[in-house]
Design brief:
single chain, alpha+beta, four-stranded antiparallel β-sheet, two-stranded antiparallel ribbon, 1 helix, 6 strands
Length: about 160
Amino acid sequence: MRPMFTHDPCQGSHESGVANLIEYIMISGILMGLFIVILLMVNAHFMVGPVNTLAYSAFTDIGNGVSTRIVDTYAIAPEHGNISSKFDIPDEVGGRGYFVDIGSTSDLSAQRVAVMRDSMVTNISIAGIGSSRKAGGNTTGAGMNMIRYDSGGFE
């Protein structure tokens, strides 16, 4: 009767074990590489895209609110004197800060409120006071914000 396990180095009985190990390592490496690529793609397509869409909508709402507050302040402004109004807008949109810029464009009859972050910008026109009054300034979402009107103008 012949023994089942022999340790004869000439027969090469360990080659099948090494081949299986190399195959396992190669397939695991390829699968890990694909997994890393999928993780990078998921972040870009399923998380960043919807956040930017929601931020654009929020920026439009914030710009409309600031524009309305400017028009309301102009509507109740005294003929001689000044008025100040404090208001609050969200501190962050999508977990990040943003800037609000109020000012004139190249067309003096169309003023705008621009809400921006990185390369995303929304422009909302200041309805109602476009050519009669000039509005200008900037702020961020953090803290309380103020709109001021002075009949003598600002320097």
